[in-house]
């Protein structure tokens, strides 16, 4: 009887030790996951893919708009180094020529094609540009179309936006990319393949106080291209929508306390997303990344959060403060 009682106590102690070990393992996993989330610069699906798949880019024709500066210029440099056959576009041809001379790679700079493009120039002009792009490289056709050009004005309230800003933003961010796509995709359909990469924004996933029209343009782009994919994916057309948060570029304010992903890292993750065929990718540090997750999976909480900071964010922008600070939740001002 005594032996049975001792055996039972030992079994119980062993069960408790096993439970404690299991809890400890789960705790360690949770802490590691939490630290990873706090330090992440992209969504977990994107970061899990690792490196760029060079074979998906090398020898492919890649057309990049907005390539004269910022993320577009960095994209051009990275794509050239991966062996892409590049077509670079923007409004300013002199700036494009300057970018071209800085490119190095299998086909760069010698074979990089400069194609000036104004997305607001109208359908006739855009059609000519598409036909030229398709005729380059022995009429190989465009494999990747990277819609990177964008128009954004300084932050203001939703009611303070002028008609001029409204039209300019929608023409460059929405009408232009959709028009080019409408003319280019039929060529891709004939070849049975093509990949559209759309540089959208975190502002196209969540409310963006102070950026109402810009946000509206990015929501519109997301809706169009996700729908396009659902209609044409079975015909060989791929679509990757990239939603960066704040990114450090030559145009961003110096001396800012806002934590921004570098242009180089943003471009790298964009190419990772495209070469792995990811449908939508988020690129940002915290707290923007957390807000995107909240709005996506717990919309009531996410929208409540944005209501808490909305007015304060506009004020912070007017004072040239940090418009992405957690302190906006607690009535604390941060320069």
UniProtKB/TrEMBL annotation:
InterPro entries referenced in this protein's UniProt entry, alphabetically: NAD(P)-bd_dom_sf, Sc_DH/Rdtase_CS, SDR_fam
Protein name as annotated: Dehydrogenase/reductase SDR family member 7
Organism, scientific name: Capsicum annuum
Pfam family, one: adh_short
PANTHER family for the chain: NAD(P)-BINDING ROSSMANN-FOLD SUPERFAMILY PROTEIN
Sequence intervals crossing the membrane: 19-38
Keyword Transmembrane (UniProt): yes
UniProt keywords, alphabetically: Membrane, Transmembrane, Transmembrane helix
């Amino acid at each position: 009887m005594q032996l049975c009682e001792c055996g039972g106590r030992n079994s119980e102690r062993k069960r408790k030790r096993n439970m404690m070990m299991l809890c400890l393992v789960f705790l360690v996993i949770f802490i590691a996951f939490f630290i990873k989330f706090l330090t992440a610069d992209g969504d977990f699906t994107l970061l899990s893919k690792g490196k760029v798949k060079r074979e998906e880019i090398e020898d492919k024709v890649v057309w990049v708009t907005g390539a004269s500066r910022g993320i577009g210029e960095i994209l051009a440099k990275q794509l050239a180094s991966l062996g892409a056959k590049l077509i670079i576009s923007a409004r300013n041809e002199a700036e494009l020529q300057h970018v071209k001379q800085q490119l190095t790679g299998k086909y760069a700079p010698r074979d990089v094609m400069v194609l000036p493009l104004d997305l607001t120039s109208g359908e006739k002009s855009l059609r000519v540009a598409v036909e030229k792009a398709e005729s380059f490289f022995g009429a190989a056709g465009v494999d990747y179309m990277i819609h990177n050009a964008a128009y954004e004005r300084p932050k203001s309230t939703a009611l303070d936006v002028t008609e001029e800003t409204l039209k300019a933003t929608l023409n460059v961010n929405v009408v232009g990319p959709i028009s080019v796509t409408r003319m280019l995709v039929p060529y891709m359909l004939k070849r049975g393949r093509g990949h559209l990469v759309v540089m959208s924004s975190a502002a196209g996933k969540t409310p963006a106080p102070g950026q109402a029209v810009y946000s509206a343009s990015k929501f519109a782009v997301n809706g169009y291209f996700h729908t396009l994919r659902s209609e044409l994916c079975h015909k060989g057309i791929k679509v990757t929508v990239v939603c960066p948060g704040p990114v450090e570029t030559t145009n961003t304010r110096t001396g800012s306390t806002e934590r921004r992903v570098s242009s180089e890292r943003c471009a790298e993750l964009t190419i990772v997303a495209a070469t792995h065929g990811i449908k939508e990718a988020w690129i940002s540090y915290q707290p923007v990344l957390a807000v995107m997750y909240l709005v996506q999976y717990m919309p009531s909480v996410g929208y409540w959060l944005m209501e808490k900071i909305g007015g304060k964010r506009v004020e912070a922008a007017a004072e040239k403060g940090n418009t992405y600070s957690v302190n906006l939740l607690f009535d604390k001002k941060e320069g």
